[in-house]
Write a structure and sequence with these properties.
526 residues
Length: 526
Amino acid sequence: MLPELHRAGAVRAVLTSYLRCAARGVATKKYEAVACDVPQTTTAGGIRPGACNMLASSVPAEFATTTTGHELSGSSAFYEYLDCTHARCVPGAMVLAGWEPPPWGTLTKGPSAPSLRAITTIHGISSETMDAFVDRLFSFDSASPPTLRVGNAFREGVRASAAALIMYFEERWNAGEARSVQAKIIQTVESMECGAGGRSAHEVVVSWGRTVRSAFLARAQPRVATAAVSDHAIHASEAIRALSTTLADLGRHVHSLRKEVLDLRDKLDCSRAAAAAGSSGGAAAAAGNSNGAAAAAGSSGGAAAAAGSSGGAAAAAGNSNGAAAASKKPVGNALLLQPIGNVPQLAKANQYLAEDLWLMSKGIGESMPVFKESEKGRVKIALDMFDGMATQSELDSLPKLEDGEQRRLARSIHDLIVLRLREAFTAKEGKVPPCLKTKKKGDALRLKASAYEDRMRELKDQRSGKDHAPSSSTGRSWRLKRERKQHGDDEQEQLGEERMSKRAASSSGMFGSIPSLFGGWQGGFE
């Protein structure tokens, strides 16, 4: 198959170079058309065990050994290649997990994790765009573990996790669970602009989730690959199922839009009719006023006076019609200003970490979410604390730093604010509250944006009215005093060490003559 291998001295090294050159994300121009998702650390040593496991999961051992060249007599070496977590372990694991067992005496590939492949196939989104979506969803940056990035060992696990979050999005949304996770997914979709046809981010994620679910259920049933049922046929079946689901969602969306347009058209007709009635009422009012004037001019005719009175009544009626028209017209305009479709939910301060919101406020990372009016004050308190604690040089250099450095700077400022809050509680109550402590030693404490207002309120003495809460305007001065004190303590410690070393040196000089003295005595005794 590969004539070049006949001339190669090290076949394994050549095959390893082929595999690594075809890894997605780092594939060379020559191998872009056949790039696949393999770790960059893969070697050719995994080809034979991988082939044995795939064959054992798809065909009986009698057929598999014909391809691998093993013999089934005695304790066959073929079974030494089968990984206990793959071909031979899947049937038992399926039964214990509640799935239907495969046909008696056969192995199977078993259920697989949810995959983003259906989204790229059905919705026309490239794999690169989905990888960027996954990185932004899980907030990956230069400080994240390399094994989680594209082309590395655990990337498929990351993609499967993202697919699971998308697949269960609608179910969790309807149950009111994990709102912060749901909001993160929606914000990521909005920032990536992955929506199509003017749909909202919520509708896009729901459509993606149904597509992933259809493909997952199609792969979940245990199967044994035969000549009549190939992987291509399975992928085609998955694509057809996902396409049917997408078309059904699109039909329901179009029907709802058509209904909304018809409702708006009816409201517009009502507002126009009300405006026309108001105009006719104004004309009648003008006619009634002229009749009233004629009645005042003609003092000899009582009939004319009566006509004037009737004209005055008509004028009053005209004025009432005009008032009714004026009251109805704004209602029609207000109806026209109502938004179409789902209204995005406003964010809350307890859904975000304060350090993340501070970076967003500086134009770093994702766009700043829209908060409720009652939450804006809480967010402002947290942001003011960060701005007051950061130095001017840190604020100036923040946009120029890399992603990982920016996050580390935000966390260091957060830790300083926590230290200041702990000092304030110690001064007020003599102890630090549990909400400012970590559960285990070495754990990192990360406060939500809403926690700052809560701590400020707790620091205010309700009886005396004395406020122990630290002010954001004095954050830098507090930090400077702390750094000076810490620097002074370091100098005192250094001076103490120097004094101890001098004392040790003088002690060694004083007692240095004792060995020579004993040595002299020993010579005299001899």
